[in-house]
Amino acid sequence: MKGRAVTLSSIVVLIAAISALQAAAMSRQQADAFARKVVEIHDHGSLAKRRAKRTTISEAELNSWFTYRAQPLLPTGLTQPKITIVGNGKLLGSATIDLNAIGKQRSTGGTFDVWSFLGGKLPISLTGVLHTKDGKGRFELHAADVSGVPLPKTLLQELLSYYTRSEERPQGYRLEDPFDLPANIRQIDVGQGQAVVVQ
Fold this sequence. Notes:
By secondary structure, this protein is an alpha+beta fold. Helices cover 36% and strands 31% of the residues. The strands form two sheets. Strands 2, 3, 4, 5, 6 and 7 form a six-stranded antiparallel β-sheet that branches. A three-stranded antiparallel β-sheet has the order 1-9-8.
């Protein structure tokens, strides 16, 4: 019994230490570093004559930017985004979504309209692989869930359409459709804990 208690307390201490390290990795300085890199990538992409350039972005920089600087840019109803850069192109993403806000926008008011039944703030997570080559990208979805319950692809598509609508794309983006990479980016190499932007 004593050995079990020691093992349990060791696990609790390890989890606390990992949580503290993750919290320590997030900072305003990391957020500022990410913002500077985005400006550098944009400026380099707009040069008429440019040399090949590689810019490394860390997971900590990206998530710090989400925490400290992204709030004014996030769509209504989307909070606490976080990306885990696993490696070999694989990404894990999570966020909290406000289904009330989306439901008001998407509901048709019909009796069988699924959006009229949804509400509350729920955590959503998804996993997939980012494929990029020759200035094009595509995200291959592997799984998505809300509070641990698998999310049907049609509902995920509704969420994606809602959050990616713009004047140029009033219907938003479609899941797994190829897209152009901005700023003359040729590819993005997703490694463990970081991504390298190649221009």
